[in-house]
Amino acid sequence: MIKVEEISQLIKTQIKGFEKEIDIQEVGTVISVGDGIARIYGLEKAMAGELLEFQGGLQGMVLNLEEDNVGAALLGSDQTVKEGSTVKRTGRIVEVPVGKGLMGRVVNALGQPIDNKGPLEASERRRVEIKAPGIVARKSVKEPLQTGIKAIDAMIPIGRGQRELIIGDRQTGKTAVAIDTIINQKGQNVFCIYVAIGQKQSTVAQISEKLKQFGAMDYTVIVAATASSPAPLQFIAPYAGRAMAKSTSGQRDARL
Fold it and tell me: What is the pTM of this model?
């Protein structure tokens, strides 16, 4: 038998503990898509570089801010994005995980692991695009960086924190110089970030195995945006690698 007093008490308890939550999201609509770029109507408060979420979980990065629409680069395949698809703002600028927890891992341009070794042990994140520190804020270049190649070390002084460009025709040994330099940093308290853009996946796998063979992956991160990766991922790969390098090296902006 149902007692009126029990029902009344139950209703009072539920009313007393009722909390009303309102989740407001700005949602836009795709008006055109092609070549990895989507134009979206309705995201009036979108920020430059903001991460967007499309139907199906695909993510995008806001690049163009126009009067009546925004242009976003799709960070993945555009096969699931159609005209009329809905897009949600995340309120976050595109960022990647950083820190020494990435050492020894192979990640994509978004900092997601692709080496089948489980989740990353990185608790910090850093924006992909930030303003570079001024000259005064940077540390001076005062420590040498040895490549391990006598001809280069004898003729070309290279310092930690210095930008150095390796330029040349195809198949002339540019990658070999970079790999030898990474291997030579063992025990030198140097962290290395190797960004592979437009290379074959097999080539990246060979480089990873070679670094493992010499124990260099312990202080190295490989950011892979291979030839099969969408163009937007290849576009942001160097920015992601710089963000990871800047976090591990402090104020130094060391790139090879």
Answer: 0.80
